[in-house]
């Protein structure tokens, strides 16, 4: 008789940087999180999701209920994720345009942000003013927000 081995659940995390700059500190934070997750956190699978290919939101680009290919691919990655890690600079006391654009595309019906755990840390992955705005936007999109606290 064969023993049944239960596989351990994997938490899928989509990591998104609000900066498009290649040498961005936020992209660096995400690269580090990816490395640390791969090396030392069992049961977590993290993937960087590049938002630079997304066109600016234009509902005229939605044809017969379909989105442009880059948007479809992005939405699918979010849909397949259990949670989202955001790292973003703050521009003019708010979210960056690329990040807001990504949030908007994924909120088009059907909203793929719904029921996702979205998190940042107190390690300034997102500046304070943007954190509050991000929280408001995500809550309006039916995601729930978490704040990671550093160990003391």
TrEMBL record:
One of its GO terms (molecular function) is FMN binding. One of its GO terms (cellular component) is cytosol. Pfam families: FMN_red (PF03358). It is an enzyme of class 1 (oxidoreductase). This is NAD(P)H dehydrogenase (quinone). The lineage of its organism: Eukaryota, Viridiplantae, Streptophyta, Embryophyta, Tracheophyta. Its EC number is 1.6.5.2. PANTHER family: CHROMATE REDUCTASE, NAD(P)H-DEPENDENT FMN REDUCTASE LOT6. It catalyses: a quinone + NADH + H(+) = a quinol + NAD(+); a quinone + NADPH + H(+) = a quinol + NADP(+). InterPro entries: Flavoprotein-like_sf, FMN_Rdtase-like_dom, NAD(P)H-dep_reductase. Residues 11-118 form the NADPH-dependent FMN reductase-like domain. SUPFAM superfamilies: Flavoproteins.
């Amino acid at each position: 008789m064969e023993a049944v081995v239960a596989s351990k659940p994997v938490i899928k995390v989509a990591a998104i940087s609000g900066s498009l700059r290649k040498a961005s500190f936020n992209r660096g934070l995400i690269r580090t999180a990816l490395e640390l997750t791969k090396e030392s956190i069992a049961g977590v699978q993290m993937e960087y999701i590049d938002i630079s290919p997304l066109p600016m939101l234009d509902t005229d680009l939605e044809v017969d209920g379909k989105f442009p290919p880059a948007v479809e691919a992005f939405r699918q990655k979010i849909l397949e994720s259990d949670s989202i890690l955001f790292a973003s600079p703050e521009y003019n006391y708010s979210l960056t345009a690329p990040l807001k654009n990504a949030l908007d595309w994924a909120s088009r019906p059907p909203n793929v942000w719904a029921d996702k755990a979205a998190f940042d840390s107190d390690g300034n992955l997102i500046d304070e003013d943007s954190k509050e705005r991000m929280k408001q936007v995500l809550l309006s999109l039916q995601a729930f927000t978490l704040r990671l606290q550093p160990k003391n």
